[in-house]
Amino acid sequence: MQFKLNLIVGAAALSMAGAAFAQDVVRIGHVGPTSGGIAHLGKDNEFGARMAIDELNAKGVTIGGKKVKFELLAEDDAADPKQGTAAAQKLVDSKVHGVVGHLNSGTTIPASKIYSDAGIPQISPSATNPKYTRQGFKTTFRVVADDVHLGQTLGKYAVTQLKGKTIAVIDDRTAYGQGVADEFEKGVKAAGGQIVAREFTNDKATDFTAILTSIKGKNPDIVFYGGMDAVAGPMLRQMKQLGINAKFMGGDGICTGELPKLAAGTMADNQVYCAEAGGVEGEQKKTLDDFKARFKKKFGVDVQIYAPYVYDAVNVMVDAMVKAGSSDPAKYLPVLAKTQGYKGVTGVISFDEKGDIKNGALTLYTYKGGNRQQLAVVR
């Protein structure tokens, strides 16, 4: 009888320990395109999340008096809105405590309603379409500047610094590509430049002969492309084949280390200009450089573009959980919304009333010798 009682007590103790362990696991979801044409950017994002999770677990984090273990639930949305919403629903059903993602505005925006309905905080490290944080949801945040700032800054730069008098604009008809192109066009016009052509393609196109031939007839000083590097690279190759010698501009979607490879060596020095939605200066640059060195040592590849922002987003989310003393979304969400002065590897993070980063920086780049070179940080 005593033996049987011991077994019952032991089983109850194990059951209680298992329940306690389950409560002490904090699940953070990440979604990005880890398949398809921009899988290199999606993996970059995922690696940023994994690095943050691994470091948090190595450090040992206590929330509400309990030591917790973080788990990353990573999903692939292939930069497709339908797959993005399916991934979002899967994470909600898995009862994640928060989500970092998605990468593209076209997947981030539709997914945001699913997270909002479930009350799960979402921080995008890279979606720049203004609509994302202007839907009235309390759960949406981002750690980069939006397209209004990015596109209009590039438009002004095209006219005032690159002396572009006639400018052609192409976009890929995604929420990101069309959004940044629209804002770029506004910036050009405000600075006194002239838009001589507005064309569109799609985010999976490979042949641009028709639209580029039409643009060539307008003889523009600058061609702006709203979209991602997987399309921009082949577009640059075909511009060279057609003898279009205009400067080429784009937003953060083309501003990657892979662009010269995707353009197959056809990029001339100082031909391509782009902006990244973020930027650091002074002592902060050393912090970011240290992160990039750790990242390369861990994964064996260089940072593409967004990994540091993903890393910061995970840490900002966990910082709010620690301050709230709970990983329950309903309890830490109000604390996350009040984030002010968090020091990340990408700079100081403070959210405004919409969930946008305050005083977001932009970094302007060009390419020389097949490498990206920083021109300036602007706010």
From TrEMBL:
Organism: Caldimonas aquatica
Residues of the signal peptide: 1-22
Domain of life (superkingdom): Bacteria
Family: Belongs to the leucine-binding protein family.
Keywords assigned: Amino-acid transport, Signal, Transport
Leucine-binding protein domain segment(s): 26-370
Protein name listed in UniProt: Branched-chain amino acid ABC transporter substrate-binding protein
InterPro entries associated with the record: Leu-bd (IPR028081), Leu_Ile_Val-bd (IPR000709), Peripla_BP_I (IPR028082)
